[in-house]
Amino acid sequence: MLLEGKVAIITGGAKGMGRGMAVRFAAEGCAVAIADIAMKEAEEAAAEIKKKGGKGLAIKCDVTNIKQVGETVDTVIKKFGKIDILVNNAGAIAAHTPIEDLTEEAWDKVLALNLKSDFLFCKFVVPYMKKQKSGKIINLSSIGAIQPPAHEIHYNTAKAGVIGFTTDLANALAPFNINVNCMLPGPIRTNFYDARVSAMTEEEQDAFFKRLGKKVPLGRVGTPEDMAGAALFLASGLSDYITGVALPVSGGLPLLPPPPPTT
Ligand SMILES: NC(=O)c1ccc[n+]([C@@H]2O[C@H](COP(=O)([O-])OP(=O)(O)OC[C@H]3O[C@@H](n4cnc5c(N)ncnc54)[C@H](O)[C@@H]3O)[C@@H](O)[C@H]2O)c1
Q1: N or C: which end of the chain has fewer CB within 10 A?
Q2: Total count of domains within the chain
Q3: Which of 71, 115, 190, 197, when mutated, tests ligand 1's pocket best, judged by the most ligand atoms within 8 Å of its CB?
């Protein structure tokens, strides 16, 4: 097992790709703390892990609230004794808004959830990783940071900030044997798209994701399992010599889909 005896915090692990990572990490022998505002789903994810013989813990935490983040880290240390892996995954898309109509409040809210939260969790977790002279930090950016699919400037700016945050921290923590990398997901079918598709029938949703998949070189949207596989690589010893990397997990984006074959 790739994560035998390890302890991870996964923010936003109640749903979507965070949940996929939580279940996958647990199957590889990792104790997983799920920090999320969606407690019902977080408890369900922890129960799924326990049912399969793993160690899962659901913690109610708003990742934008410094007090709750500090308390979450304390709880994990009390329960599991250490933190080997931190996945800063919680985040949400924002509405398409022309910059002149974007409010300061909306800007601050989106930056807090998609960027400041990474700072808050690292602030409390890094001292433990420094002391044990090991750790893996994985931050969730987006392919939108380098190829905006729509005018969501607050979201895309936050996700570009995640790349800068990752690069700086990777350099600063390299002497402590702590790897810091980020992933740039392309379109992944999760609750992330709820606001756009919830009014559609199941058939319409399938058609929406099929159309979206045609914009991707590999010809399909991704799954939480696609993200979990890449996250497992970055969380495990397989990536010990990799730090400061912004890894697209995006079916080939930002490449454009190839033209249809001519023969
Ligand atoms: N799905 C995609 O296509 C896609 C593409 C690029 C980047 N991303 C990024 O990947 C990450 C995961 O997205 P997803 O697709 O799994 O979305 P999702 O909506 O399925 O899951 C997000 C999780 O974050 C939690 N969350 C939201 N606000 C929170 C808060 N304030 N405190 C704690 N938890 C909170 C939600 O409850 C949920 O469990 C996000 O950072 C997102 O921006 C997703």
Answers
A1: C
A2: 2
A3: 190
User: Looking at ligand 1, which residue's alpha carbon is closest to its atom 40?
Assistant: 91
Note the pLDDT tens digit of each residue in 30-82. 999 999 999 999 999 999 999 999 999 999 999 999 999 999 999 999 999 99
Atom of ligand 1 nearest to the CA of 143: 6
Assessment of whether the complete model's pTM goes beyond 0.90: yes
Domain that holds residue 199: 194-221
Strand segments, DSSP code E, in the chain are: 7-11, 31-36, 56-60, 85-88, 135-140, 178-185, 246-249
Question: If you search the block for the tokens 């921290």, which residue do you land on?
Answer: 169
233 shares a domain with 200: no
22/27 Cα distance (integer angstroms): 9
Start-to-end Cα distance in the chain:
45
* pLDDT tens column, 133-190: 999 999 999 999 999 988 899 999 999 999 999 999 999 999 999 999 999 999 999 9
Distance 263 CA to ligand 1 centre (A): 42
Give yes or no for a contact between 58 and 43, defined as CB atoms under 8 angstroms apart.
yes
Answer yes or no: is 93 within a domain: yes
Q: From CA 154, how far away is CA 66, in angstroms rounded?
A: 21
**Same domain membership, residue 175 and residue 62:** yes
